[in-house]
TrEMBL record:
Superkingdom in the source lineage: Eukaryota
Protein name: SET domain-containing protein
Annotated Acidic residues bias: 25-35
Region feature (Disordered): 1-103
InterPro entries per UniProt: SET_dom, SET_dom_sf, SET_SmydA-8
SUPFAM superfamilies: SET domain
Length: 599
């Protein structure tokens, strides 16, 4: 304990040297409680504060570096058309009559789920008992792993990037495919460049040819699936049970032609496997991949899993999932309490997008029309993430008059409504144009992002998903970007970071509720400005110890929730590392909070 206090004093000095903006505002306040009188001194609390602030600074760095991986493990994307009318998870369901689906996965009494079947959704999972927040529902290894759709040259063994100038450093001695090196840990492994794949290409005479065309990588995953038939019949049997939506996809000429040229002909003609795999078999595997695969890892890889593919979609999912970066195993957990009999869901779409975009993505890549509670509500459960400001009146907002119909007009509604109507086509054009503009903004440019928000403040609701997207970047940049490190931020900019984080957390509470990565990371981001503002206020004697204690309580609450959420992530993932940092910061904060409370 004593050792800890000494250490904190050291931290204080470090902080003093760095204090930005206010310069000497970091002067230590005079002691108001006698040292040794039973409670901590103000000096000690200030020293503890300094260390906690330093930790917050590091925290901001960790948090900032984690942002990019937020969308991992969303099922992969593609294109196409609707199936039937969507979810209604309330239909008269029946237990699946196909025991092969879950056979051998877990003892029935241990299982958190049962498989049901509905006319609308096909098979889906339902909680077999009440599930606790954070409870593991599925933990499994992939049936097959491989590259996602478009790709630059990378090692088929371990998936790291390799030279892309057409002269890779190393080629597999047997089949000639570029790999990272002779000692690649994925060479010969089932989840990497397997013996079956190597033999197939060796037999096709690939070795004598030049480097594979970039498009060739798009056929690798389909080939890996097809090779399971002989190499791992059990895995092939599970994969064959997955939905391919062939009947819908066949009617989509662009998609079908693309797969024919890039995958079917590559495998049958270029790789000389026409006698092994029919065109139909290959198209079916393409469909299975489009509908069921998850993005995994950090290098553009995807995977099929034996059970997780059965999870139905909901735009407000009740699970969160993460994959292990080493072996790509997937863990699906309850994000919050799930009652026995409730469907277990995940989101196939990016939750921070508006209904028009999400439904378009689901229709084109998963071949169904979502009609979940969020999609059916123009306000998106009160979050207003699609709302536009009315151009005709000062306080109204435009919302779709019928959100399940993409062509329905948008109307200025609510108490302050003027009734102005805009057709759906114009809304789409407007939002697409603003989206394009946002995409041209450098994601690391604080000023440009702020300018974007200012420019559209009279067009987009402050919670519109495009505004939230810019704010999401800003939440990470404030505290990390050059010229905006946490100690450099003025009180005003710290307050800006705090307000943005609070706004994001409020939206995530509705759209990604419970133990979800987005919430965890954002709460972690939020603790830093809260802490530093409180510290500065205290050091400047602008706030009294009582108020400081109240503010620190909020910091502790943020860290507790962030640590709880991020502890569920794999230890070596960026989020897992952030979770550990949150737990460490929490220990320091609790000390300090107790000290301040005792003043
Ligand atoms: C990954 S699969 C899920 C398993 C699938 N139900 C089965 O029986 O193989 C995705 C497909 O399930 C159906 N699906 C999933 N969630 C749905 C939802 N909320 N509404 C309608 N269909 C859904 C769609 O056909 C979608 O293409």
């Amino acid at each position: 304990m004593n050792k800890g206090r000494k250490h904190r004093r050291g931290g204080r000095n470090r902080h003093k040297g760095k204090a930005g903006g206010g310069g000497e505002a970091a002067e230590e306040p005079e002691a108001e409680v006698e040292e040794g009188a039973g409670g901590p001194t103000v000096e000690e609390t200030a020293a503890a504060a300094a260390e906690a602030v330093d930790a917050a600074s590091n925290a901001a760095q960790v948090a900032a570096s984690a942002g990019v991986s937020l969308q991992q493990s969303q099922p992969a994307r593609t294109e196409t058309k609707p199936k039937a009318k969507a979810p209604s998870t309330k239909t008269a369901d029946r237990l699946t009559d196909d025991p092969g689906v879950t056979e051998g996965l877990m003892l029935p009494e241990e299982r958190a789920f049962v498989v049901k079947n509905s006319d609308i959704m096909g098979r889906y999972l339902v909680a077999a008992r009440d599930l606790e927040p954070g409870e593991v529902i599925i933990c499994e290894e992939p049936l097959v792993v491989g590259p996602s759709q478009a790709f630059k040259p990378f090692c088929l063994g371990c998936y790291q990037r390799i030279e892309d100038d057409g002269r890779p450093a190393f080629r597999c001695e047997r089949c000639g495919w570029p790999l990272c090196g002779r000692a690649c840990r994925g060479a010969g492994a089932a989840g990497g460049h397997s013996a079956a794949e190597c033999s197939a290409w060796a037999a096709a005479g690939l070795r004598g040819r030049g480097p594979p065309a970039p498009l060739a990588y798009q056929a690798v995953m389909a080939l890996r699936c097809l090779l399971l038939r002989d190499a791992r019949p059990d895995a092939w049997r599970r994969l064959s049970q997955m939905e391919s939506h062939n009947e819908i996809r066949r009617k989509l000429p662009e998609l079908w032609r693309h797969n024919q040229a890039v995958v079917v002909e590559r495998i049958r003609e270029d790789w000389k496997m026409a006698d092994r795999f029919t065109e139909d078999e290959i198209h079916t595997v393409c469909g299975i991949l489009e509908v069921n695969s998850f993005e995994v890892g950090q290098h553009g890889t995807r995977a099929l899993f034996p059970t997780a593919f059965l999870l139905a979609h909901d735009c407000v999912p009740n699970t969160s999932h993460s994959d292990d970066t080493d072996d790509f195993s997937l863990t699906v957990r309850a994000a919050h309490a799930i009652k026995r009999g409730q469907p277990i869901t995940l989101s196939y779409a990016y939750t921070l997008q508006g209904t028009l975009k999400r439904r378009e993505h689901l229709r084109e890549s998963k071949f169904f029309d979502c009609a979940c509670a969020r999609c059916a509500d123009a306000t998106e459960l009160g979050t207003q993430v699609s709302a536009l400001k009315c151009p005709k009146c000062p306080r109204g907002f435009l919302l779709s008059s019928a959100p399940l119909d993409a062509h329905a007009p948008w109307r200025c509604g609510g108490a302050a409504a003027c009734g102005f109507v805009l057709d759906a086509h114009s809304v789409r054009l407007l939002v697409d144009r603003i989206n394009e503009e946002l995409e041209t903004v450098d994601a690391n440019d604080v000023r440009a992002l702020e300018a974007f928000l200012k420019k559209y403040r009279n067009v987009l609701h402050s919670h519109h998903y495009l505004a939230l997207s810019a704010k999401h970047s800003l939440a990470q940049l404030y505290g990390k970007a050059q010229g905006y490190t946490i100690h450099e931020l003025s009180d005003e900019l710290l307050a800006r970071k705090r307000d943005i984080c609070r706004e994001l957390v409020r939206v995530f509470d509705v759209l990604e509720p419970g133990l979800t990565r987005l919430r965890g990371i954002c709460l972690y981001e939020l603790h830093a400005p809260l802490l530093i503002l409180a510290t500065r206020g205290f050091e400047a004697r602008a706030i009294a110890p009582k108020e400081l204690a109240a503010r620190l309580q909020e910091v502790v609450a943020c860290l507790e929730e962030a640590a709880r959420i991020l502890a569920l992530e794999p230890d070596t993932s960026t989020e897992g590392i952030m979770g550990q940092a949150a737990a460490d910061a929490l220990l320091r904060m609790r000390d300090w909070h107790r000290a301040v409370d005792a003043l």
